[in-house]
Design brief:
This protein is mainly alpha-helical. The protein is 76% helix and 0% strand. It has a domain at 346-418: Serine Threonine Protein Phosphatase 5, Tetratricopeptide repeat (Alpha Horseshoe), CATH 1.25.40.10.
Amino acid sequence: MFAWTTLILLLTAAVANTDVAPAEKPEPEIVLQVRELMKENKADEALRVCDEALRVSPDNGHAHLIRGKLLSQAEDYREALAAFDRAVELLPGNHEPLMYRSVPRMELGQLEEALADLAAAEELSPDVALIHEYRGIIYSRKDDPLRARDSFARAIELSTQRAMCYLGRAKAQMELGDLDAALQDFSTTIEINPTLPGAHYGRAWILVKQGKLPLARRDLDEAIADGARSADIYVLRGEIRMAQDEAEAALTEFRQAVAFADASFRCQLRHGQCAYSLKKYAEAAGAYTKALELRPGDVESLTGRVWCYRELDEHGKALEDIHAVAEQVKTDPTVFTTRAYLLLETEQYKDALADTEKAIELNPKFVYAYALKGAVLSSLERWDEAIAALDQGSAIDAKDENIVTIRAQVNEYLAKKQ
C-alpha cells in the first residue's frame, strides 16, 4: 500500500540534523556549513561546499560522508555509493558512513549488502534509531513484515517521536493482520506528522474495513485539508461515497484520482465502474480502456467494457470483449450467460443456446441460465423445450423475476397463436 520513496524525507532530515550518539568533540566545520545551507533548502550550494572541501583536502572523510548524503537526496545513488565507500575507508569506527551507505544500496536493489552495512553500523553504535529504521524499510521491501515490525519497534524504543517508524510499523501490522495495532500506529503517526504521506489513508482504510465510514471519510477530508493529497486518498473517498449512495460525488473523486495518477489501474477501474453506474457509458468505456492498457486482459475491466459497449449499441465490440473474457475464464457460468445474452440480442441463437447450456453445466443451480435458455429457445420457437427450461429454473426458485417474466411472455405468445 505504501511506496518507500518517503525514505527521501529521512535523508533530508539526516543531512540537516545528523542522527548520531552524543559527540565527544566539536563537529567538523563542513557539517555545520552544510546544516545551515540545508536549513535554507540550498542543496546545490551545499554540494558545492563539499566539492570545494574535497578539492582542498581529498581525504576529508566528513566531506565524502556529507556528499554521499546530498547525492542520495538527489537520487544519484551510484555516485552516492562511491562517496560513502570513500567515507567508510576514511572514517573507520564511525557508524554513519555504513548506516547511510545502506540507502543507495537499498535503492539500487542491493538489499543484502544494505543489511550487512546496517549490522556493521549497529556493532559500532547499537542505540542509533535510524539504523533500525532503515532496517525496517529494507525488510518491508523484502516482504518480511515480522522483521520489519520488530525493527521499527526497536527504533521507536530509542526515539519515540519518529513518525516514519510508526508509519512503517503500522504497515507491517496490517500485513500481519493486527488491524487494531496498525490503527493505533497510524494515529500516532498523524499526531507527530499529520502530512506524512500514507498515514491518513492507512487509518481510513482500516476504518472502512471496520465499517466506520463516517470516521474514515472525516479522516480523508482532514488529510486533504492538511495537504496530504494523493490518488489513493481520492479513490478511497470515492469508494466511501459509492457505499453511501453518493455516486455523483464519487465520480468527482475518481476523476480527481485519475488526474493525480492517470497510470493507476485501480483509479481507472473505479472511474469506469462509477461512470457506468451513472449511465455515463462512453466515459466508463474510456476508463475501462485505459485500465486495460495498464493491465491487458484484465477480466473485470473487459467485462465492464462489455456492458458499456452494449449500452452504446456497439454489440460487435461487446462480443469481441466477452470472447476474450471467455478465453481466460472457462469456469465462471456468468461469463457464458453474459455472452449468451449478447448473442441473443444479435440473433445468434445457436451460439447463445450453447452458452446457456455451458453455464448450466458449470452450475446446475444457476436460475438465470435456465431463464436465458428459455428465452433463446422461445426465439427459436422451440416452445416445449423453452417451457421445460423455465420449469427447471422455477423448480429452483419459483419467484425468480426472470423466470416469471419470460414464462409470462411465452404464455402470452402461445395464447395468441391459439
